[in-house]
Amino acid sequence: MSRRPKSDYVSNNSALRRRATFSRLSPYCLFVHTRPRLAIAQAVAVLMLAACTNASGGDATPRPASPPPPSPSDVFDGFDGPAGSRPNTKFWSYDLGNLSPDNHELQTYTDATANIRHDGNGHLIVQALKTPTGYTSGRLITQGKIPILYGTVSARIKFPSGQGIWPAFWLLGSDIDTVGWPQCGEIDVMELVNTGTTYNVTLHGPQGKSDYSTNGLSKTGLITDLSKDFHVYWVTRQPDSITIGVDGTALADFTPSSLPEGATWVFNKPMYAVLNVAVGGDWPGPPDQSTHFPATMLIDWFRYTR
Q: Is the pTM of this model over 0.85?
């Protein structure tokens, strides 16, 4: 959705971070999603999650059964802070500002508790707000906090939906400030666009100096509205291998042979996680009178298992 590239970074190199945000025009892009992209994407593969079910049941619950206790090798955040408190600085920092001018997103990312805070019931809130002067939202990153290499990164999330709402859970290469985007690589674990039934699983990376998109994997089946309940979104990386899924269903597998001719596999290196809610942009379009604010992402837990 909105990648680190999807917004600017808090680092000194804001230009690189903005470029990352413009990932939808990446030098190469492998993706699966439920609808053709707008003019900004040229080739699309349809991905509909077959009979996707939530392990916690059909109805949303404020706080489902706790996940298994983390092992010593896990990084785990259960977001158990008191209501109104900030996220744990051991794991998280903020991307700030208008990070996606090329993508024409409308939000300004802040570190205000109005946009990012614990709810006191075991969740972290990341939400977009409409203000008299525009839109504010939150974008959390693990950059410099958690070196994510091989293993599984997962989060249990209830995403918002609505016209112009574009939430995402994704990874960016930790070397973005030195090599730029898309050379750093980007893995979109899950991004929703406007509705909970339009979701995307994507890789972005370099292919010479040209820009284009190419088809990913295609599956068809029943669609579940992912915005109606919590789901576990995950990505497992091993050398030359990436698998992305929801709950117990693998959605897509990628290897170097999945890339277009001349493209470079840039995913065998440390990356960091991003959680954000974008507003507007070339892909979703602007909010309208039907859009509900605040647009709230609830995160039940985040885990990295090496």
A: no
